[in-house]
Amino acid sequence: MHDVRRxxxxxxxxxxxxxxxxxxxxxxxxxxxxxxxxLGTTEVVAAAARAVDAARAAxxxxxxxxxxxxxxxxxxxxxxxxxxxxxxxxxxxxxEDGPATQIHADLAPRPGEPIVTKRRISAFTGSDLEVLxxxxxxxxxxxxxxxxxxxxxxxxxxxADLDFRITVLEDACADGxxxxxxxxxxxxxxxxxVVTTTDAWVASL
Length: 205
Prior knowledge:
Blueprint: E1 8-11, E2 14-17, E3 24-29, H1 33-39, H2 42-58, E4 62-67, H3 84-89, E5 115-118, H4 129-135, E6 140-146, H5 148-161, E7 165-174, H6 178-188, E8 194-196, H7 198-204
Parallel strand pairs: 3-4, 3-6, 4-5, 6-7, 7-8
Antiparallel strand pairs: 1-2
């Protein structure tokens, strides 16, 4: 496929800067066993899997992100409202080597596909995601993740501040509150990202 970095492409009813396989990375966030079991659905996992398969076929790099901690949770401050309780109540459930923090089997990474371990909500915080994206010469990210109000929201905000072009695959995201998911994907994310469906994005490749 030729480089269309400077072209325009119609994606999901919104015109966005063209994305080539060289400049775009699909970032699949928090599709790890423990989170999928709590927040994921068959449909959202299937949508993420379609995105992954299509990206691979088109030569678009795929990066996987998970949240996990060292034994004893040394990265977590007691003042952290999101993860402070995990240190006291979840035992080894969120340890790096635990089964709950491994990528879900339906989205198993292939050799050479990075698995990024983050320490907070955003995919960038406490991880080397930005370094990997710069190393891949990426100026655009396509995001799938759970939850919409967690990792997706935080990553959209930070990716925008880092000057990445952003696409959110709304059906490859899910939230515990469907109304929150709707408001974010319909009203909040479009201020900084192209919001489209997995199938529309796949068709654009």
